[in-house]
C-alpha cells in the first residue's frame, strides 16, 4: 500500500561551470526540471515513474538510464508513477533518487558534483576522479510489431544515422522475449530502411511469426506525431503500395518513457476473460447497437469482459473495460484503456505507401489490443466473441477477412499465450461455420461456436452467467450457451422468424478429418470433386451451397470413419428445425462450398 505523502515543493538550485549546469552537494532535480550539457545538446530530466531520461535537445532521441538495484543486476528498481520522485546529490555526496521520505536508488559513491557531459553521459565526480557514469547515450524507443510491444535501440544517436539496431519484443511476461538484429541500415529523408535478422545469429535472415516472407526488411519513418515511428515490415523496400497476402505488417513506435512495456498494476488472475469485438459507430458520443449497455454485467470476482470496437467519430480502434451497468452515453470515455488513431497512422504511412488504408493494418491493431487485454487482465480461460458480419470465406467484422489475416492475428495471440485460445464464438457471424473458416481457425482455438446459416444477432451475450463458474469446462459452457441462445430466439419477435442452427466444434479433433480429405488443400480438392457431383449443391437464399456433413461421404467413399470423426468434432448442435418450416433440410452445421 502506498504511503500518504504530503506535497513538498523543492526549488532546484544549480551552479554554473562555464556553460555547463552542475549539481553540487545538496542540489535537487525535481520532475519538470532539466539539467543541460555545456553544449546544450542534451538535457537530463526525471520522469513521473522515477526513471532518469537523457534527451537530445532536438527531441530525436530518448535514453533511459535503467537504474539497477546492484552492479551487474538485471533487476530495475520498482519505481511507480505518482510518487513525487526527485534526484538529489546529498550533502554526504551520495547521488540518489528518492521521495520526500523514502530512498529508492543510489550509485553507492560519494563525490562533490554531478555533470551532464557534452557526449551525453551523466557523470558523478569527486574532484577530477570519475566515480560513476552512465554509458554513452543510445537512441531507445518503445516499439510495437507482430502483436507485441518491446524496444528498438540504436547503438548511437539518431542524428548520427546509425546503420544497425536491436529489437526486443515481449510477450505477456518479461521472460518471453524475442530478439532481432537490424543490419545494413540506410537513411533517406528521415526514413530508416534495414534488414531484419536473427538476434542470436545476425548473419541469418529472421523468419517472423505470422508472416509469409523468408526475407524481411524494416522500413520506418520518424515523426513528430503521436507515433514517433510509423513503418512496415516488408519483403521488398521498393514496394510503394500495401500488398496482400501478408506481405506487409505495421510497425509503430514511441519515445522511451511514453508507453510502458507492461501494465503497472495488472489485475489479479480471474477464471475467464472475454474480449468482444464490435462493429459500432460513435455519433457525437452516442453509440449505436447499445454496445456498452448490453450486457449489464462485465465484471465478477471470477470474470472480466472487455469491448474492442471501431470508432468512426474519433477515427480510433479502441479497447474498453467497462464497469457494470454503465449509464447510456456516460462513463464510456473514462473506461477506454487503449486506442489507435488509424487516420494518423495512415497519413504517416502515405509518405512511402501512398495507397495504404486502415483496412491494410487492422489485423495488427487487433492483435495489439488483444495482447493488451491479456497482459492487463490475466485469466485461466481466454475467449474472443465476435458480434458482426461473417461469410463462408472470411469472418469477424471484416477484420479477419481471409486465411492470411486469421493466421497473422491468431498466430501472435497463441504465441504469447503459449497455448490455444479456449473458445472463439462466431455464432452470430453469418455463415462462419464453413470448411474455409474452420480450417483457418482450428490451429488457434480449442473450441469454436459457429453457424452455417445467415444469422440475426440475438440477446444472449450475458457471458458472465456462463464464464464465472470455475467448475465448468469450456465444452460444458459452450453447450449451456447454445441452449440459452435457442430460448432467446424463440422469445425474440424478430429472431424467431430466422432459421437458427449453432454447432459447437472441438477443433482439437479437426486435423484428423482434414488429413482424410486433402490436408492443407482440402477445399480445392473438395471443389474439384464437387464439380463432377453437382447434385450435392442445393439452393439457399438464391445461392448454390453444399453441406460438409452430407457431401464428404459421397466425395470420399473410402473415408469410412468420417461419421465417427464428425461426431467427435461437431460435439453439440441446437437448431429450430421443429419450429420453423425450413426451405431445405440439407444444412447440417458446416458449409463445404458456396457458389454465386
List the helices and strands and how they pair.
Layout: E1 15-17, E2 20-24, E3 28-30, E4 35-36, E5 42-46, E6 52-56, E7 62-64, E8 86-89, E9 94-98, E10 103-110, E11 113-116, E12 122-126, E13 129-133, E14 139-145, E15 148-154, E16 165-170, E17 177-188, E18 191-198, E19 217-222, E20 229-234, E21 249-255, E22 270-278, E23 282-283, E24 286-287, E25 299-300, E26 303-311, E27 316-320, E28 336-341, H1 342-349, H2 358-376, E29 379-387, H3 403-417, E30 421-426, H4 435-441, E31 445-450, H5 463-467, H6 474-491, E32 501-506, H7 510-515, H8 522-530, E33 537-540, E34 543-547, H9 548-555, H10 562-569, E35 570-575, E36 591-595
Helix pairs in contact: 2-3, 3-4
Q: Can you give a write-up of this model?
A:
The protein has 596 residues and is of the alpha+beta class. It folds into 3 domains: 15-133, Bulb-type lectin domain (Agglutinin, subunit A, Orthogonal Prism), CATH 2.90.10.10; 139-255; 270-595, no CATH class. Helix content is 17%, strand content 33%. It has 10 helices and 36 strands. The strands form 7 sheets. Strands 22, 25, 26, 27, 28, 29, 30, 31, 32 and 35 form a 10-stranded mixed β-sheet that branches. Strand 5 and strand 6 (52-56) form a beta hairpin. Helix 2 packs parallel to helix 3 and helix 3 (403-417) runs parallel beside helix 4 (435-441). Mean pLDDT is 84; it is low at 1-20, 68-78 and 289-293.
Amino acid at each position: 500500500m502506498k504511503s500518504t505523502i504530503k506535497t513538498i515543493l523543492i526549488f532546484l538550485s544549480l551552479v554554473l561551470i562555464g556553460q555547463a549546469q552542475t549539481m553540487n552537494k545538496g542540489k535537487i532535480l525535481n520532475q519538470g526540471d532539466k539539467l543541460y550539457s555545456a553544449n546544450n545538446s542534451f538535457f537530463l530530466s526525471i520522469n513521473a515513474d522515477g526513471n532518469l531520461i537523457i534527451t537530445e535537445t532536438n527531441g530525436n532521441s530518448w535514453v533511459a538510464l535503467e537504474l539497477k538495484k546492484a552492479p551487474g543486476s538485471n533487476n530495475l528498481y520498482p519505481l511507480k508513477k505518482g510518487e513525487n520522485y526527485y534526484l538529489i546529490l546529498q550533502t554526504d555526496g551520495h547521488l540518489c533518487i528518492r521521495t520526500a521520505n523514502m530512498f529508492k536508488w543510489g550509485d553507492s559513491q560519494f563525490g562533490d558534483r554531478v555533470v551532464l557531459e557534452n557526449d551525453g553521459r551523466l557523470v558523478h565526480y569527486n574532484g577530477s576522479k570519475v566515480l560513476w557514469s552512465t554509458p554513452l547515450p543510445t537512441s531507445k524507443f518503445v516499439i510495437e510489431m507482430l502483436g507485441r510491444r518491446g524496444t528498438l535501440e540504436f547503438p548511437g544517436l539518431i542524428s548520427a544515422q546509425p546503420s544497425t539496431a536491436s529489437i526486443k519484443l515481449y510477450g505477456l511476461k518479461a521472460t518471453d522475449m524475442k530478439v532481432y538484429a537490424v543490419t545494413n541500415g540506410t537513411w533517406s529523408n528521415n526514413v530508416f530502411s534495414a534488414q531484419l535478422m536473427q538476434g542470436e545469429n545476425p548473419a541469418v535472415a529472421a523468419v517472423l511469426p505470422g508472416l509469409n516472407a523468408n526475407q524481411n526488411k524494416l522500413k520506418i519513418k520518424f515523426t513528430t506525431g503521436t507515433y514517433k515511428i510509423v513503418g512496415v515490415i516488408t519483403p521488398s523496400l521498393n514496394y510503394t503500395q500495401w500488398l496482400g497476402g501478408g506481405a506487409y505488417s505495421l510497425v509503430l513506435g514511441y519515445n522511451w518513457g511514453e508507453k510502458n512495456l507492461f501494465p503497472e498494476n495488472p489485475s489479479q488472475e480471474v477464471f475467464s476473460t472475454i474480449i468482444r469485438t464490435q462493429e459500432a459507430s460513435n455519433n457525437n458520443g452516442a453509440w449505436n447497437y447499445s454496445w456498452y449497455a448490453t450486457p449489464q454485467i462485465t465484471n465478477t470476482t471470477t470474470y472480466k469482459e472487455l469491448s474492442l470496437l471501431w470508432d468512426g467519430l474519433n477515427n480510433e480502434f479502441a479497447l474498453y473495460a467497462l464497469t457494470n451497468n454503465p449509464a447510456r452515453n456516460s462513463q464510456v470515455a473514462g473506461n477506454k484503456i487503449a486506442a489507435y488513431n488509424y487516420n494518423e497512422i495512415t497519413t504517416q504511412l502515405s509518405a512511402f505507401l501512398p495507397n495504404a488504408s486502415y483496412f491494410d493494418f487492422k489485423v495488427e491493431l487487433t492483435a495489439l489490443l488483444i495482447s493488451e487485454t491479456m497482459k492487463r487482465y490475466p485469466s485461466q480461460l481466454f475467449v474472443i466473441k465476435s458480434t458482426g458480419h461473417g461469410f463462408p470465406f472470411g469472418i469477424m467484422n471484416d477484420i479477419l477477412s481471409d486465411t492470411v489475416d486469421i493466421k497473422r492475428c491468431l498466430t501472435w495471440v497463441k504465441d504469447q499465450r503459449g497455448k490455444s485460445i479456449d473458445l472463439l464464438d462466431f455464432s452470430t457471424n453469418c455463415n462462419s461455420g464453413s470448411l474455409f473458416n474452420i480450417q483457418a481457425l482450428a490451429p488457434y482455438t480449442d473450441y469454436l461456436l459457429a453457424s452455417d446459416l445467415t444469422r440475426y444477432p440475438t440477446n444472449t451475450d450475458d457471458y458472465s452467467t456462463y464464464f464465472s463458474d470455475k467448475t465448468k469446462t469450456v465444452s460444458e459452457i459452450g453447450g449451456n450457451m447454445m441452449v440459452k441462445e435457442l430460448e432467446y430466439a424463440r422469445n425474440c419477435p424478430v429472431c424467431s422468424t430466422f432459421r437458427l442452427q449453432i454447432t459447437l466444434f472441438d477443433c482439437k479433433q479437426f486435423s484428423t478429418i482434414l488429413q482424410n480429405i486433402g490436408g492443407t488443400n482440402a477445399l480445392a480438392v473438395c471443389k474439384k470433386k464437387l464439380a463432377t457431383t453437382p447434385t450435392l449443391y442445393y439452393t439457399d437464399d438464391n445461392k448454390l451451397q453444399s453441406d460438409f456433413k452430407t457431401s464428404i461421404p459421397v466425395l470420399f467413399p473410402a473415408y469410412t470413419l468420417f461419421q465417427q470423426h464428425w461426431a467427435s468434432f461437431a460435439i453439440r448442435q441446437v437448431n429450430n428445425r421443429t419450429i420453423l418450416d425450413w426451405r431445405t433440410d440439407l444444412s447440417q452445421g458446416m458449409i463445404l462450398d458456396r457458389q454465386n
